[in-house]
Specification:
Radius of gyration: 32 Å
Helix content: 25-40%
Mean pLDDT: 95
Strand order of the largest sheet: 12-25-26-27-23-24-13
Distance between the termini: 66 Å
Largest sheet: 7 strands, mixed
Strand content: 15-25%
């Protein structure tokens, strides 16, 4: 490993133990084994960083092996996308391999299994197989075809390969133990018939190996020393080892499977099936939609390889599945973009600002710093003129004392420019402000060193010169799901949590220095957030995607909703102390307002679970959640919990 001292995660400890126990270091070899049935997502990015990171740390080769054993779902498009994503993340594989490279060897081994009485052709229906397989608490029973002769099995298996049978008529099963406590060991399927065109082998094969049969044997053929999988494969390890036992030659490296926890990300889904559903149902514009959790989507959103690698390192390797708050990923990209993204000015909700005492027809080019975090970033020139655009929210005609932006009679600084003072407005027939009029202090140019330039004002606004500004389409992306864990609520379809405000498209204006901006160029729109040039952008029409805001708006929203729940619980205690109907009605209105402000389904569910207890106030609070919040209903709650709530509410004699 690197000489730099660091604490080892448990997978690295396994490797170190193996090295101490005699495994030659030059025999270390790892692999990343994606199935090409969809685009890689952020969870894969962590697995990629793990496997390729181990390769870097131990100076060991890492293979990219495609698990292409199911031609019904696999496409060359996905192979190309996976390779592109891994390269973009900054990793290089030693060898590009495919499970299909080994189809003939796997078939030959299967023949040997049959000859040794370790595999047989089963002709049951899938329903019959499921019934005879038993349950986790009851043993299975042998298939009526388990004792077919070797000759009959060989004949049927060859005819399966030759395409003589329809799909579903026969399978090849390993003969292990139908009474095993591990259901996967109860004569698992090794081959099934699929009359599907394969993206590499064409129509050569009519039978395809199952994952459990192909994976460990592919590891063995490639001399992989350590096969790291996610926790759902822990029950598969016994079968992985059993298959290896049948073919292992002690002259070769025997691969070792070990498992680590998935890193699930809040407000996302990472199931390829669910990601495909989002694409097919057009909730998103494709696999690389910037709202998707795919690596391609994150790349298009403006995420950087450094941010994803740093995120993977920060969350580490765990032994238990856990939910990582997406804000940690957003913080990682903010940290990286803060270092590398040039600062520019853009206005996304423009209103015209006219500086009435600035000479008409005149303009000046002012100096602006590109990135205060980068000493080598230099400066650029931005044009200033009589008419500018500023953000509509940066002006208020009648402003409260704590409004630190522009208002009538109030001074603010224009970034890199002058101090201005609000003087008046122009409105249309509907009362909407169409122009803001202001005056400027000609001696207050930022950085000029004059006394006026050093005058303290309440705020600084960004702006663009109306005469020089470039019009741009700006896509304001937000989290795709409103709930932190959209696909874990068994009573709800994850699509019910799709955020209707996950994309807003506006027309804004950007400074002219962005005219030459190219696809994937990244910028900080000052005071707004980080943005990236989208691939839809052209020389005639600039298109920017919002990567992330400068601050985490969701964290503030989450805290407000948690406070609303806590405040509601505190208020409800006064309900039973009230002496009049008017007092009780006032308490109910106050609690209802708190409850109605909560949109998080998970927060509501947790509040319900925690408060179904013997406390009268808690029980009333739960009942009021159902009464006043439209984001959750009794059908969304576990029936047993609901019955408990009803029983306790009746026992407490709550009048509902």
């Amino acid at each position: 490993m690197s000489t730099e001292e660091k604490s080892l995660n448990f997978l690295e400890q396994i490797i170190e133990d193996d090295l101490r126990n005699g495994l030659p270091k030059d025999k270390l070899r790892f692999r990343f084994p994606p199935e090409p049935n969809g685009y890689l997502h952020v969870g894969h990015a962590s697995a990629i960083a793990l496997n390729f990171g181990l390769g870097i740390d131990y100076n060991a080769p890492v293979n990219l092996r495609f698990d292409d054993t199911n031609p019904a779902k696999e496409e060359q498009e996905y192979v190309d996308a996976i390779k592109r994503d891994i390269e973009w993340l900054g990793y290089r594989w030693a060898e590009e391999r495919y499970a299909s490279d080994y189809f003939q060897q796997l078939y030959d081994w299967a023949i040997e299994f049959i000859k040794k009485g370790k595999a047989y052709v089963d002709s049951q229906t899938s329903e019959e197989m499921a019934e005879q397989k038993g349950t986790p608490t009851t043993p299975g029973v042998n298939s009526p075809f388990r004792d077919r002769s070797v000759e009959e099995n060989l004949d049927l298996f060859e005819r399966m390969k030759n395409g003589e049978f329809p799909e579903g008529t026969h399978i090849l099963r390993a003969k292990i133990d139908m009474a095993s406590t591990n259901m996967l060991m109860r004569d698992p399927i090794m081959y099934r018939i699929l009359h599907k065109h394969h993206h590499r082998t064409g129509d050569q094969w009519c039978i395809y190996p199952m994952y459990d049969w192909a994976h460990g044997e592919s590891d063995y053929l490639e001399r992989i020393s350590h096969s790291f999988c996610t926790l759902e494969f822990l029950p598969h390890r016994e079968l992985y080892d059993w298959f290896l036992d049948q073919i292992y030659d002690d002259k070769n490296i025997r691969p070792k499977q070990r498992e680590f926890a998935r890193r699930n990300l809040s407000h996302t889904v990472v199931s390829k099936r669910k990601l495909l559903k989002l694409v097919e149902d057009k909730h998103v514009a494709g696999w690389d939609d910037p709202r998707m959790s795919t690596i391609s989507g994150l790349r298009r959103r403006g995420y950087t390889p450094v941010a994803l690698r740093n995120f993977a390192e920060a969350i580490g390797i765990a032994k238990r599945d856990n939910l990582i708050d997406v804000s940690r990923l957003e913080a990682a990209v903010r940290e990286d973009l803060n270092k590398i993204a040039p600062r520019v000015m853009a206005v996304i909700d423009p209103v015209k600002l006219v500086i009435t005492n600035y000479p008409e027809g005149s303009s000046a080019w002012l100096e602006a710093e590109n990135n205060p975090e980068d000493d080598n970033a230099g400066f650029r020139q931005v044009p200033f003129s009589r008419e500018l655009y500023i953000e509509r929210e940066d002006f208020m005609e009648d402003a409260p004392s704590k409004f630190f932006r522009l208002s009538i009679g109030k001074e603010v600084r224009l970034k890199n420019a002058y101090i201005i003072k609000g003087e008046g407005v122009v409105k249309d027939a509907n009362g909407n402000i169409t122009e803001i009029h202001a005056t400027y202090d000609s001696d207050s140019l930022s950085g000029s060193g004059t006394e006026a330039s050093q005058r303290k004002v309440s705020g600084t606004l960004h702006w663009v010169s109306a005469a020089h500004a470039l019009q741009a389409e700006i896509r304001l992306y937000d989290r795709l799901f409103t709930d932190e864990s959209p696909d874990t609520h068994k009573e709800k379809d994850f699509l019910e949590f799709v955020n209707p405000d996950s994309l807003k498209v506006v027309t804004g204006f950007v400074e002219p220095s962005l005219k030459s901006a190219k696809n994937e160029d990244k910028f900080q729109f000052q005071r707004i957030g980080y943005f990236v040039v989208d691939k839809d952008s052209t020389s005639e029409k600039l298109v920017f995607n919002k990567t992330v805001g400068l601050k985490d708006a969701w964290e503030e929203k989450g805290k407000k909703e948690e406070n609303a729940i806590n405040n509601g619980l505190k208020e409800i205690n006064r309900y039973f102390k009230a002496t009049t109907d008017e007092e009780r009605a006032a308490v109910e209105r106050s609690v209802a307002e708190n409850i109605q402000s909560v949109t998080s389904f998970s927060l509501l569910q947790n509040a319900i679970r925690k408060n179904v207890n013997n406390n009268k106030s808690s029980l009333l609070f739960v009942n009021w959640i159902f009464k006043y919040n439209n984001n959750i209903s009794k059908s969304d709650v576990d029936q047993e919990l609901l019955e408990k709530l009803n029983t306790m509410s009746e026992r407490a004699k709550l009048s509902l």
